[in-house]
């Protein structure tokens, strides 16, 4: 059984350490990759063999350092007011409780090979809903490049410098109350039009209720319904949030510009739409997001032709 070693304060002021033993293969980089919002993300940096995260936890800001500690262990260190919480929940962040044992892909050669090559892939669970929801809203109906640029601007402008010895330029995202106080012109400067910023504002007003959905388990229909009760949060945003916050293994990103085509090309050699993607994934119901992650992590790329999303710069409208 996976077993984290009890967290212990370090001699370094404000530092808390633990060692997590997952009890099986664990690919740290692949597991944490969904938290990275582009190569210049102020909240996620890879330095050599180290992965640094700047997290907003329920008890405050935290800088988290994750590194291998031998073949069967991962060392986690954290600094800041949220250090204790971050270390306590580090096993969930690294895939504890994510059970792939019922996923049978042997009948599909591509997926069988993808699983064989990625034995350490796990679905993470951050246990922080608002922190996953806000960047998902920013990514609605725009290119990743636009959303990541806005994310960088707002974190550097309104975030908190990452505590402890985190690499220079790392920032922890604002609290729900701080997000709600960002003025409209700053959202505009970031390239976020009023529709998306208004969605963030509405979500921040019910932030405690959104966080309580963590008590409903690893996602599912009830979690999706609760998240979508906020006007402006649809199926795609709810899925993107639940995949990360709750560790939902069965919520593929319906409505995504790229995912259905990627799934179609990988599984059948031809693009499909959302309905086609869901039909292809149906044999693995209960694991559909796991299958998508296997495809995404396999290195497979769909052919580079077809329509591209039009880039709209809302900063100058």
From TrEMBL:
InterPro entries reported for this sequence = Alkylbase_DNA_Glycosylase/TA (IPR051912), DNA_glycosylase (IPR011257)
Q: Which UniProt keywords apply?
A: DNA damage, DNA repair
Which SUPFAM superfamilies is this protein grouped with? DNA-glycosylase
Domain of life assignment:
Bacteria
Spell out the Gene3D superfamilies in the cross-references: Hypothetical protein, domain 2
Query: What start and end residues bound the annotated signal peptide?
Result: none
Q: What is this protein called?
A: DNA-3-methyladenine glycosylase 2 family protein
Query: Could you tell me which species this protein originates from?
Result: Curtobacterium citreum
């Amino acid at each position: 059984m996976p077993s984290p070693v009890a967290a212990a304060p370090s001699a370094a002021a404000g530092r808390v350490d633990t060692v997590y033993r997952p009890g099986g293969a664990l690919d740290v980089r692949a597991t944490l990759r969904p938290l990275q919002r582009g190569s210049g993300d102020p909240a996620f940096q890879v330095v050599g063999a180290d992965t640094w995260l700047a997290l907003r936890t329920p008890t405050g800001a935290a800088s988290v350092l994750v590194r291998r500690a031998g073949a069967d262990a991962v060392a986690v260190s954290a600094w800041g007011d949220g250090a204790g919480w971050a270390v306590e929940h580090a096993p969930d962040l690294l895939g504890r409780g994510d059970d792939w044992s019922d996923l049978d892909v042997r009948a599909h050669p591509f997926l069988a090979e993808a699983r064989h090559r990625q034995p350490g892939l796990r679905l993470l669970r951050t246990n922080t809903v608002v922190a996953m929801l806000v960047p998902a809203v920013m990514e609605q109906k725009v290119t990743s490049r636009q959303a990541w640029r806005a994310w960088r601007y707002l974190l550097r402008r309104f975030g908190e410098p990452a505590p402890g010895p985190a690499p220079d330029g790392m920032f922890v995202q604002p609290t729900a109350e701080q997000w709600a106080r960002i003025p409209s012109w700053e959202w505009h400067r970031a390239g976020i039009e009023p529709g998306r910023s208004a969605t963030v504002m509405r979500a921040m007003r019910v932030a405690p209720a959104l966080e309580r959905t963590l008590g409903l388990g690893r996602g599912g229909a009830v979690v999706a319904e609760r998240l979508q009760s906020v006007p402006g949060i649809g199926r795609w945003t709810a899925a993107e949030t639940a995949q990360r916050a709750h560790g939902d293994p069965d919520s593929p990103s319906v409505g995504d510009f790229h995912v259905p085509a990627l799934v179609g090309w990988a599984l059948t050699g031809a693009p499909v739409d959302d309905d086609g993607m869901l039909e292809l994934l149906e044999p693995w119901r209960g694991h559909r997001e796991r299958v998508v992650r296997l495809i995404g992590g396999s290195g497979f790329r769909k052919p580079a032709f077809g329509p591209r999303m039009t880039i709209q710069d809302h900063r100058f409208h």
